[in-house]
Amino acid sequence: MLPNLPEGHGTTGFAHWCRWEWAAAEQSFRRALELNPLYVQGRCWRAYFLAAIGRHAEALAEVERALDLDPVSHYAHMIAGEVFRYARRYDEAIASQRRALGIHPDFALAQLFLGVALTGAARYDVAEPVLDAALKGTGRSPLFVGCAGAARALAGRRQQAREMLDEYSVAA
User: Can you list the domains of the chain with their CATH numbers?
Assistant: First the structure.
């Protein structure tokens, strides 16, 4: 990796995060943003990481910076929705995912995370069709099947949840 390439440090941070190497992830994300404070994807990844480790105020500030830099980024709006969801601010998460989908209607991750936020808000009647639509657009990816199954389980639809769990088990 080139030492002065912010994208390399951002990607390395994401890889560290996926391996649960929190300190290394944070260091790489910080270095990426030191090299290029305008690096929107790096800000988004850092925000998502901070939300995942429970540092919600910092995560919200970071994603706000990303949106200030690129207010029409469907990706930044999707990450904002996830940051709000991690903070259990479901109405704001739902609004952010809808903004992402307004910019890019076929963005499957925003559709998935909209369904997950609706599930978190206990709006199962709305979440299930959103998750079903996301499933159709992804060839029934195991991640999407798992989220749709969890929504059904939380809604008390045990048989449907069990069928999706079986499908997930076979696919995974």
Answer: 1-114 (1.25.40.10), 122-172 (no CATH)
